[in-house]
Amino acid sequence: MESSNNLAIEPMKRSTEVPGAGSNQGNHRLSMVIPAYNEEDTIRQAISEAATALGGMLAEYEILIVDDGSADRTAEIVREESVTNPCVRLIKQPRNMGYGAALRAGFQAARFELVSFTDADCQFELSDLEYMLPLADQFDIVSGYRIDRKDPARRRFFSWGYNTLIQLLIGTGIRDIDCALKIYHRDTLQQFLPEANNFFANTEMFCKARRQDLSVVDVGVRHRPRAAGESKVSLWDIPETLKTLLPFWWTQVVFSAEKPAASESNRHFWLAFMLLVVVAGTLLLPNLSYPLIEPDEGRYAEIPREMIARGDWIVPTLRFKPYLDKPPLFYWLCAVSYKLFGPTDQAARLVPAASAFLTVLLTFVFGARMLNTRSAFLGALIMCLSLGFVICGRFLILDSLLALVVTLSLFLAYEAVASGRFRWSWWIASAVACGLGFLTKGPVALLLLAPPVVVYCWLSRLKSRPGFGAWLVYLLTACAVAAPWYVAVSLREPGFVHHFFWVHNFGRFLYSVNHPQPFWFYMPVLLLAWMPWGLLLVPLAVYLLKRSKELRATRFLGMGFLALWAVWCVMFFSVSKGKMPTYILPAWPAIALALGHFLATMGALSPRWLPEWNFLHSRFQNGLLALCFVSVVACSVTYLLRLDEPFEASYESILWIAALVGAWVLRKRWSPQHLFGVFALTAFVMVFQTTQDWFPAWGQVHTVLPASSPLREQMMHSPAEVICCGKTWDSVPFYLQRNDITYMPNHDLDQLAEHIDRQQGAYLFLENDVEAEKRYRIGFENSAVQTLWKTPKVTIVYLQQRKASPAVAALETAADGRQGAPLRTAEADSRATAIVAGAVDREFYQPVGGLPFLPPDQGEAVYPATGALWFVPRQAGN
């Protein structure tokens, strides 16, 4: 037997053999509470056994029978027994109010310093109290646990499951939480009386006792089959118990702290705000003009350009065909940016960058209201120093805008219910933001908001929770914002409803073949995207779930809202069949604020918790060394990928090596606060270098049409057709500002060849994996070929139709003796050394790279070492 003030008590080991009643314990007086509901078959026996056991060991006792609205003769029998035994008292409830309510009534009516209780079904040997009473002098609570239970199998299974769940969630340290034989001290009992009216009362009492550091001991007691009747515990009690258990666990165990009054001055708030403006602005807004990265950026840049070109802001189009996969808000904002700053890649990226920038500021402002200024500042700072968030903000996709409007709607909904009274102004504002989410990516905006708000209000037992009417107003307001466009586009495109809602929303969620990933996909994504702060995610989870008194005192109820927000967002997209790393971006603000509060808390805890802070200190030490080492390796990788010049890569590597050495030497000299500052500064440099140096360089290398090339201007104003063969490359029409781009698939090369034959000249964007032999079928055989540009993705060539002259026709006919046989060609590129011309029109055969013409008598010359060239048979003559 061991005791503990924290209720971490091992059960008392004792023999199941209990002798008969012992000597009179005259120094104890005890009130025995017995709740009863329709127990006419056993109540007389229960009173008799209690009187016999208590009378043999106590000088003074009372038996309180609490009739919980019985419909049988239970109360009548108790009155009869009270006539013959004045120690028996009847407490009658006006109606059946529940087991917990009956216990509470009995405890409040008890008169003696010790209070015990048992059930009316006579399943306990009350003589075991003889061995429990001496322990009451040493412990605040003496709790029995049933030895060799005699209940039916179903009842034992329910009890095992409930006790396991209680230990997992609450950790009372009690082996048998619902054993109906316990002893309390009346003076302390009043401090943890149950509020629950059902069978959860025992759990509630022990949890409250744990919070008050009361000592508890477990004692084995004997158990018997039920004397008569049936157990009142049924399968239907499980949901009722969970309905009570989960809110209690949420508000009394996990997030039980009251938020203190704000102590930070406005000066501190605005200093933190301005610092975040500088940091987020420096990382997100400069150098947005690097080339668009296919396919996503090209697509989302071209759609708003076509909106402006067509003058139609209702039906989005891509390649001038309806593109109904996404709503138009993102396209509208990009189009407005084009109007203000011109149709450039920088103007396009300004929309997601500004969305991410505003998300950082919103997170800080509402985080300061929800938690405190320090936690909010650390959270917002961590978020804009995480690599994944900044990359998404500088990448032309919809997710940053969706994260902004979802974040705004969730913060506003929280403000509507958090103050204790429901506030309609915040609620309507949240609905408007949700409507903007509908216009960004569809109904997912509401699906990300409603579950965490509903569950938070239920778990937190908020009186200000929105009812059915409030949710109806919310939905109508959100629809009022988004419905005009949905109606307009449905009238214009009859297939929109099926295509958008079923195929691209429910279809992608339920059975998508686009981006299928396993359920656990987002676990490594979170760790990598939160670099370099991913090392804090596991300690954060431990902080949120640990049941220590010190940590409980720092977890405000608002932290619960953040936890529900983040967990629901990640779980929702984990269940979805189609997954992309950027889908969980709306969870970033909630995770960031939780991390910020975690760091602020660990730095402010009592000296008892310094070991936990030292643990984080070592994490930051190792993380700083790892961050410097990874940056050194990254410099080498960027050089190998030709993203950096040799001198720049070497210079950057030397600086990172110096930082690594300095971090190693000084790591033990820095205080936790100084170490965090150094780590944050290093993270800033790493994120800045990655997003504004290496990432744009990667875009320059892999672009389809480089900004530095004169080809843009040439193709923009040329009458020659522009053809994309293989892939679509939507950045081509965006950069050329042309609406007449032709798209041809690789598998239809014969049709493409016929199309090229009808052109006087054409620019061809050719996928690099198209084999050389297929290129001849595209039209090289009837055209002059000039290679203009080559990147890892595409080769750009210019095809010019040959002039129809008699000499050319004669050469074609004489090539192999058949009428109309074409003159065969091979690639005329930088490998060639000459062009055989003869009598062929020299105006058509333009030299490539300054190649000379050969005279007719060398017409059969072949240059196998450099590649086959124009082949003119000698018999063709002049």
Automatic annotation (TrEMBL):
Keywords: Cell membrane, Glycosyltransferase, Lipopolysaccharide biosynthesis, Membrane, Transferase, Transmembrane, Transmembrane helix. Residues 31-190 form the Glycosyltransferase 2-like domain. Residues 325-485 form the Glycosyltransferase RgtA/B/C/D-like domain. GO terms for biological process: lipopolysaccharide biosynthetic process. This is Undecaprenyl phosphate-alpha-4-amino-4-deoxy-L-arabinose arabinosyl transferase. Its EC number is 2.4.2.43. It comes from Gimesia panareensis. Residues 1-27 are annotated as: Disordered. The gene is arnT. The chain crosses the membrane at residues 269-290, 347-368, 380-406, 426-459, 471-488, 519-544, 556-575, 587-610, 622-643, 649-666. GO terms for cellular component: plasma membrane. It is an enzyme of class 2 (transferase). One of its GO terms (molecular function) is undecaprenyl-phosphate 4-deoxy-4-formamido-L-arabinose transferase activity.
